[in-house]
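Incident log, support desk, overnight shift.

02:14 A customer reports that sequence design results differ from what the structure should imply. Their input is reproduced verbatim below. On-call engineer (initials T.W.) acknowledged and began investigating.
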């Protein structure tokens, strides 16, 4: 099936590994031209080497907690591609912990990572994009239901939902669609970190923690990054021309809320 993504100009943030890497890979498989980014140059070069055989891919080092880096990524990435059709905003996760334990520096870092960078990226992309542009933001199931010991995400990522809904109304006038995805437990380094920390904190084995986590997922397993990437591909494709302001859970049925 032709999804209309061939030769589309795509920027994927935080894409040297994990969810972002899987998304960049899927776009390349669909024939898109892609810019990947990361604050870690070593990881970025490794990702580039893995992806370059799939199609046209560029890489730009960018720290999403730095305003000037985010602006440079969107504008320089667009220049290298000759425009911008799709922005997929993915970010790393802030430090785990209780809101009573986290200090002011960690809260400020989380704000810059999860909120300010997303606002800047969407704003800069909207200046460049023409009618038909797509912006997809990866958030978290924590928007709907708080996740134990991830209080920074629980509290700050809700603002990302507000950004999606607000921008969707304003950018629709330009013919730009903006949507989001809410990953549940996806097998990334972040999930491995959570499993290890919970095992240490609760005095249990990592296998016991993993079993407890998957017990709350109706499908009975952790998701693969590629499964999330496929939903992003759908939102960027010509199959999703009337989807705007939506935030789709990709969680194996983990969320219990009805809305």
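02:41 Re-run completed on a clean worker. Output:
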């Amino acid at each position: 099936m032709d999804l209309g993504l061939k030769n589309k100009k795509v920027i994927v943030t935080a894409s040297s590994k994990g969810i972002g890497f899987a998304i960049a890979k899927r776009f390349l498989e669909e024939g898109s031209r892609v810019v990947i980014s990361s604050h870690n140059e070593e990881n970025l070069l490794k990702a580039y080497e893995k992806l370059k055989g799939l199609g046209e891919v560029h890489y730009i080092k960018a720290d999403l907690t730095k305003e000037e880096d985010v602006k440079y990524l969107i504008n320089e990435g667009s220049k290298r591609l000759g425009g911008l059709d799709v922005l997929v905003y993915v970010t790393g996760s802030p430090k785990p912990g209780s809101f009573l334990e986290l200090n002011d520096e960690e809260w400020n870092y989380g704000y810059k990572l999860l909120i300010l960078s997303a606002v800047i990226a969407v704003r800069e992309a909207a200046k460049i994009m023409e009618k038909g542009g797509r912006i997809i933001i990866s958030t978290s199931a924590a928007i709907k239901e708080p996740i134990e010991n991830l209080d920074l995400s629980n509290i700050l990522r809700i603002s990302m939902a507000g950004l999606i809904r607000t921008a969707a109304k304003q950018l629709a006038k330009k013919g730009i669609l903006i949507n989001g995805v809410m990953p549940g437990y996806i097998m990334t380094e972040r999930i491995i970190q959570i499993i290890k920390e919970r095992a240490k904190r609760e005095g249990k084995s990592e296998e016991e923690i993993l079993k407890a986590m998957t017990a709350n997922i109706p499908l009975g397993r952790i998701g693969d990054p590629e499964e999330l990437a496929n939903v992003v591909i759908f939102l960027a494709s010509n199959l999703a021309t009337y989807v705007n302001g939506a935030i789709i859970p990709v969680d194996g049925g983990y969320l219990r809320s009805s809305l």
